[in-house]
Amino acid sequence: MTAQTGKKNIIAGNWKMNLGLKASEALALTLRGLSDNLKKSEIWIAPSAIALAATTQALKGSAIRVGSQNVCAQKAGAFTGEVSVAMLQEIAVSFALVGHSERRSLYAESIDQCVARAFGAIEQGLDVVFCVGESLSERESGSTFEVVSAQLKPLLEALKNNGSVRSLVIAYEPVWAIGTGKVATTEQIAETHRDIHQLLSQYTTPETVVPILYGGSVTADNFASIIALEHVSGALVGGASLLYEKFAPLLEISEL
Ligand code: 13P
Q1: Pairing with 238, which of 15, 198, 213, 214 sits 20 to 30 Å away (CA)?
Q2: Which residues does ligand 1 sit against, CB inside 6 Å?
Q3: Are 216 and 177 in contact (CB under 8 A)?
Q4: Whether the Cβ atoms of residue 138 and residue 177 lie closer than 8 Å to each other
């Protein structure tokens, strides 16, 4: 499968460890009504693992894509607590987030582990939203792109021989902007997205578009100026994706 279903904006909700089965199902059903009228945007959601099956069932036949918040690199076996690509595909999950900063920092997932997860998932047929981003001290010391590049380049190297970079979406999420209400400035976003785009262009043909989403305290108040930027193809939204009243306005802005 290819992540590029056109040139539509991807408005993705990462529900993190919020919303149980019933609440996820209910929110998915509300979003379903919204998705039918979208012309320029796609909705992607990543509910908790426990709610994935009910959510894909609730969205059967709709254009909304459901993803896992992580995925195992290995196909099967003694990997307690992990979920495989085949298990996800069996319940119609079509993408996975990999390398979210909460996985990298709170659960010590290394660059190598994140690359292995993303590569394994893509190889087995999932699309991957690969999250990258710098900490505040890294931003302040001027090493943002060095950090982002160190996270991303090994994956691009791994994918370069089989053309599967097409299954990739990048989410640039400055760690200091996640859940803090501190959104990056449009200059910071524009610069980092341009740098990521340039790095990607070394691994892709001009026809291959790898969408680059921005994430970090996105709300209806700041999204219009973010989505207007070059090389920004959508958003990965945490807090504002948990309530229909906060998520729907992002889609309205994307449709403008
Ligand atoms: P917030 O939108 O809550 O800052 O979270 C962003 C995020 O981590 C999405 O993956």
Answers
A1: 198
A2: 14, 100, 173, 178-179, 215-218, 236-240
A3: yes
A4: no
**Active-site annotation holder among 100, 102, 138, 193:** 100
Task: Please identify, by atom number, the ligand 1 atom nearest to the C-alpha of residue 131.
Answer: 10
Phi, psi (rounded to 5 degrees) for 30: -70, -40
Rounded to an integer, what distance in angstroms lies between the CA atom of residue 119 and that of residue 155?
7
174 touches 134 (CB < 8 A): yes
Which of 237, 241, 243, 246 for a ligand 1 pocket mutation test, highest count of atoms within 8 Å of Cβ? 237
The closest residue, in CA terms, to atom 5 on ligand 1 is: 238
Per-residue pLDDT of the chain (256 residues; tens, 9 = 90+): 345 545 899 999 999 999 999 999 999 999 999 998 899 999 999 999 999 999 999 999 999 999 999 999 999 999 999 999 999 999 999 999 999 999 999 999 999 999 999 999 999 999 999 999 999 999 999 999 999 999 999 999 999 877 789 999 999 999 999 988 888 899 999 999 999 999 999 999 888 889 999 999 999 999 999 999 999 999 999 999 999 999 999 999 999 9
Residue nearest to atom 9 of ligand 1 (CA): 238
How remote is the CA of residue 215 from the centroid of ligand 1, in Å?
Answer: 6
